[in-house]
Design brief:
The longest helix is centred in the middle third of the chain and has 21 residues, at 70-90. The chain is α/β, with parallel strands linked by helices. The radius of gyration is 15 Å and the shape is globular. The protein has helices at 16-24, 41-51, 70-90, 106-120, and strands spanning 6-12, 53-59, 95-100, 124-126.
């Protein structure tokens, strides 16, 4: 089976604002990585081309956007979703976007879903397996 034209539905992106927020809040080694990996849309597209991937759906990985408090999570969700949208617009057809949600703030998450759908034309939302150690259920 050829990977040409494949769709990667689990692709993470690390915009600069997210990287800075991770470092500022003590998450310089997320998920046990020795450091925060480098990322750029251009390098991501080059890797996709090497691997025969047509489109990648971008999402933010753990620990997600809730790093300190609800207000900061709302701001960071907005920032990373806008950065993801820029990658989609700058590379037509190569990326889709799964919006990050500022959970555990349910009202803010619903508002970000609406904003993502109406203003950013997202393809869906990403819900992490836990937020600050709390499971969604």
């Amino acid at each position: 089976m050829s990977a040409a034209g494949a769709v990667d539905v689990h692709a993470h992106y690390l915009p600069e604002g997210y990287r800075a927020a991770l470092v500022a809040t003590g998450h310089g080694q997320p998920d046990g990585f020795p450091q925060i990996p480098a990322w750029s849309a251009e390098e991501h597209v080059a890797a996709m081309d090497r691997l025969g991937i047509a489109t990648s759906l971008l999402s933010i990985s753990s620990p997600g956007v809730f790093l300190t408090d609800d207000a900061a999570a709302r701001d960071l969700a907005r920032e990373v979703n806008e950065a993801g949208r820029r990658a989609v617009v700058d590379h037509p057809g190569r990326f889709g976007l799964l919006a990050s949600l500022p959970l555990p703030d349910i009202d803010a998450a619903i508002a970000e879903i609406a904003r993502g759908c109406k203003q950013l034309d997202v393809d869906g939302v990403a819900v992490l397996t836990n937020v600050g150690g709390t499971l969604p259920g």
